[in-house]
C-alpha cells in the first residue's frame, strides 16, 4: 500500500516538473511583439502667439511706424537758434580784455527775425550773436528783457526765416509728451524727450524765489545751454521756454509756459 502511494506521488511530481519545464521553454520560444510608445510631438513651427499677417507694425497700432518725436523736431528744429553773449568786465589787463561769455538757446517766432530767449542768457551782454541751424550768424539786438519771468526778446536783421508754431500751455496735462531742443553745454541742436510731470509749479516750489511765475515741470533733460530753447508737444508746437534752474538735478526740468512768454514778449517788443 505504501509502495503504491509512493509510486503515484513520484508520477505526479514528474508530471509537474515536466509541465514547468515545458512552460518555460514555450515562453522563451514564443514570437515577441514590441508595442509602439506614443510620445507627444512638438512641432518646431508651433507658436505661443498668433501669427501676424500683413504689416506687423500696422497690426500693433496705427501710429507705430510714425516717429512723432522726429516729426516734431523736423518741423520746429530749423527755427531753434544758438545764442552766444559776451560782456566786458572792468578794465582790461596788460595781456587781454576780461570778457564773460555765455551760451544759450532761443527760437524764432516771426520770419522777419524776432527771437525769444531767456533773460539771463543775454543779461548785461555787450554783444549777442544768433546762429541758425543752417550755420548763418547774425548780430542780435536785445529789444527788452524781464528778469521776473526770465523772458527776453532779440531782433536780428533777416527775412524769410523759419518760425515756430506756438501752442496753448493752458491745455497741458501731466503725462503728455514733452520734447526739448537746445544747445546744452554747447552741443548744438540736441533733442531730449520726456513727459509733462506737473504744471503750475510755483517759483518757491522750484527754488527760484526771484521769479514771479509758475513753471511747467518735465523729466526731459534740460541742462545749462538749453535755457531759452523751446519745449514742444508731440505736434511740434511750442508749449514752453526751457530754463535751467536746478543744477545737477536728475529728471527735473522746468519751462516757462508759452502763454505767459507771449504776453511778456509782446509787452517788451511794444516798448522797444
Report on the structure:
With 272 residues, the protein is α+β, with helices and mostly antiparallel strands. The protein has one domain: Thrombin, subunit H (Beta Barrel), CATH 2.40.10.120. Helix content is 22%, strand content 29%. The protein has a 7-stranded antiparallel sheet with strand order 5-4-1-2-3-7-6. The chain has a 6-stranded antiparallel beta barrel with strand order 8-9-10-13-12-11. The longest helix is centred in the N-terminal third of the chain and has 28 residues. It is globular.
Describe the secondary-structure layout.
Layout (H helix, E strand, L loop, with lengths): L1 H28 L26 H5 L7 H9 L3 E9 L10 E12 L3 E4 L1 H4 L4 E5 L5 E3 L1 E6 L4 E5 L21 E6 L7 E12 L13 E4 L11 E3 L5 E6 L9 E5 H14 L1
Antiparallel strand pairs: 1-2, 1-4, 2-3, 3-7, 4-5, 6-7, 8-9, 8-11, 9-10, 10-13, 11-12, 12-13
Distance between the amino and carboxyl termini: 152 Å
Shape: globular
The CATH topology is given as Thrombin, subunit H
Biggest pleated sheet: 7 strands, antiparallel
Q: How many structural domains in the coordinates?
A: 1
Biggest sheet, strands in spatial order? 5-4-1-2-3-7-6
Q: What is the radius of gyration?
A: 41 Å
Task: Please estimate the helix content.
Answer: 10-25%
Amino acid at each position: 500500500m505504501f509502495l503504491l502511494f509512493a509510486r503515484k506521488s513520484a508520477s505526479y511530481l514528474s508530471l509537474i516538473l515536466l509541465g514547468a519545464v515545458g512552460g518555460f521553454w514555450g515562453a522563451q520560444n514564443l514570437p515577441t511583439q514590441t508595442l509602439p510608445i506614443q510620445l507627444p510631438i512638438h512641432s518646431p513651427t508651433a507658436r505661443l502667439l498668433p501669427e501676424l499677417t500683413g504689416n506687423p507694425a500696422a497690426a500693433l497700432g496705427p501710429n507705430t511706424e510714425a516717429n512723432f518725436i522726429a516729426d516734431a523736431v523736423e518741423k520746429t528744429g530749423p527755427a531753434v537758434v544758438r545764442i552766444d553773449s559776451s560782456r566786458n568786465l572792468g578794465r582790461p589787463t596788460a595781456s587781454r580784455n576780461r570778457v564773460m561769455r555765455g551760451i544759450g538757446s532761443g527760437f524764432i517766432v516771426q520770419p522777419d527775425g524776432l527771437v525769444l530767449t531767456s533773460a539771463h542768457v543775454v543779461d548785461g551782454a555787450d554783444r549777442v550773436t544768433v546762429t541758425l541751424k543752417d550755420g548763418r550768424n547774425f548780430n542780435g539786438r536785445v529789444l527788452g528783457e524781464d528778469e521776473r519771468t526770465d523772458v527776453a526778446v532779440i531782433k536780428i536783421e533777416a527775412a524769410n526765416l523759419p518760425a515756430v508754431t506756438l501752442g496753448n500751455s493752458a491745455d497741458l496735462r501731466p503725462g503728455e509728451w514733452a520734447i526739448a531742443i537746445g544747445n546744452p553745454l554747447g552741443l548744438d541742436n540736441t533733442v531730449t524727450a520726456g513727459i509733462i510731470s506737473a504744471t503750475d509749479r510755483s517759483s518757491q516750489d522750484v527754488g527760484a524765489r526771484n521769479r514771479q511765475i509758475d513753471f511747467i515741470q518735465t523729466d526731459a533733460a534740460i541742462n545749462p545751454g538749453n535755457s531759452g530753447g523751446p519745449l514742444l508737444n508731440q505736434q511740434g508746437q511750442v508749449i514752453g521756454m526751457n530754463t535751467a534752474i536746478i543744477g545737477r538735478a536728475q529728471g527735473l526740468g522746468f519751462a516757462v509756459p508759452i502763454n505767459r512768454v507771449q504776453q511778456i514778449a509782446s509787452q517788451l517788443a511794444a516798448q522797444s
